[in-house]
Amino acid sequence: MSPSPFWSPRVHGLVPYVPGEQPRLANLVKLNTNENPYPPSPRVAAAIQAAVQQGLQLYPDPDSTLLRQAVAAHHGLAADQVFVGNGSDEVLAHAFFAFFQQRGAPLLLPDVTYSFYQVYCGLYGIPMEVVPLADGLRVDVEALVAPAGVEVAGVVIANPNAPTGIGLPLASIERLLQMHPGRVVLVDEAYVDFGGENAVGLVAQYPNLLVVHTLSKSRALAGLRVGVAFGQSPLIDALERVKNSFNSYPLDRLAQAGATAAYEDRAYFDEKRAAVMHSREGLSLQLEDLGFEVLPSQANFVFARHPSHDAAGLAARLRERGVLVRHFRQPRIAQYLRISIGTPQQCDALLQALSEILR
Ligand code: PMP
């Protein structure tokens, strides 16, 4: 659509995030947006039904008190160290607003990471200092620890990183926190429950740490839109101020009830994330048998390239066979496919389609 004279100047420069395809067709094998292949805990639907009975004509609890208590209990924190928002995308947006804008210095981030970070920088006018990944598509911790001669407003990383799936050890996170004592280090742990090292336990020790989680992946609630941040109470208080300046009721009654139930069913959570990790190991080996190079993943997806087949072409041919995977045009990673871990049946369908294409 062409620009309109009604637009304010900042809107002209916005480059919005383009999410992976969300098809209406039901029978596709959907391995393109890192959803959980399993449904959420059955307790979630029961809690949502109970919330409907309580009455949707009433506003929800603006503070999401029960949910924050359940999340805090799960992680051994206090409720004032927990912030909840409408998906972790919204939590990240509030964090960028609260901690990184108008700092007179750029935000430090890897060049290959979750692309929404750059979108928020554009939205809020935050300058960026982008650090290339090191060999093997690993986050270059040393370059983030000591950026060559630049003052920075803060640091953002995804751990495990997206879309590579490669995780950093907690020692690297601690080094970042220690080397940037006066700035917020935001660690987006969207995928951490699939084998990564969780930094939530460092919150008590580091006033500059903000950890962001989502219920969209390991708790299978992408459709409910709930995200969480962990930090010491001054950081959480800043997020509350920003939140209440946008929408004081971001989480509706259904989301609060369903998300609380998901946190309370720890056994289901552990069972399903173990199933995903198990499938990931099997799928990685089978992709290697087909000639793919697969990066070591600690997430619910794998990032893989075939030395003799163009990734965009492979994605298109998979789509013709009803299998959706994600391809990124960014030059450094344009030879890779990001494949979400499906059910065993979905993984088999992917492998079957790939063996036909590569034959
Ligand atoms: N962070 C990362 C690294 C992600 O990949 C995603 C999902 N695309 C998100 C955050 C956002 O997840 P949600 O808004 O569903 O919580």
UniProtKB/TrEMBL annotation:
<dbReference type="InterPro" id="IPR001917">
    <property type="entry name" value="Aminotrans_II_pyridoxalP_BS"/>
</dbReference>
<dbReference type="GO" id="GO:0000105">
    <property type="term" value="P:L-histidine biosynthetic process"/>
</dbReference>
<dbReference type="InterPro" id="IPR015422">
    <property type="entry name" value="PyrdxlP-dep_Trfase_small"/>
</dbReference>
<comment type="subunit">
    <text>Homodimer.</text>
</comment>
<dbReference type="InterPro" id="IPR004839">
    <property type="entry name" value="Aminotransferase_I/II_large"/>
</dbReference>
<dbReference type="InterPro" id="IPR050106">
    <property type="entry name" value="HistidinolP_aminotransfase"/>
</dbReference>
<feature type="domain" description="Aminotransferase class I/classII large">
    <location>
        <begin position="27"/>
        <end position="354"/>
    </location>
</feature>
<keyword id="KW-0663">Pyridoxal phosphate</keyword>
<keyword id="KW-0808">Transferase</keyword>
<dbReference type="Pfam" id="PF00155">
    <property type="entry name" value="Aminotran_1_2"/>
</dbReference>
<comment type="similarity">
    <text>Belongs to the class-II pyridoxal-phosphate-dependent aminotransferase family. Histidinol-phosphate aminotransferase subfamily.</text>
</comment>
<dbReference type="InterPro" id="IPR015424">
    <property type="entry name" value="PyrdxlP-dep_Trfase"/>
</dbReference>
<dbReference type="InterPro" id="IPR015421">
    <property type="entry name" value="PyrdxlP-dep_Trfase_major"/>
</dbReference>
<protein>
    <recommendedName>
        <fullName>Histidinol-phosphate aminotransferase</fullName>
        <ecNumber>2.6.1.9</ecNumber>
    </recommendedName>
</protein>
<keyword id="KW-0368">Histidine biosynthesis</keyword>
<keyword id="KW-0028">Amino-acid biosynthesis</keyword>
<comment type="pathway">
    <text>Amino-acid biosynthesis; L-histidine biosynthesis; L-histidine from 5-phospho-alpha-D-ribose 1-diphosphate: step 7/9.</text>
</comment>
<dbReference type="GO" id="GO:0004400">
    <property type="term" value="F:histidinol-phosphate transaminase activity"/>
</dbReference>
<dbReference type="InterPro" id="IPR005861">
    <property type="entry name" value="HisP_aminotrans"/>
</dbReference>
<keyword id="KW-0032">Aminotransferase</keyword>
<feature type="modified residue" description="N6-(pyridoxal phosphate)lysine">
    <location>
        <position position="217"/>
    </location>
</feature>
<dbReference type="GO" id="GO:0030170">
    <property type="term" value="F:pyridoxal phosphate binding"/>
</dbReference>
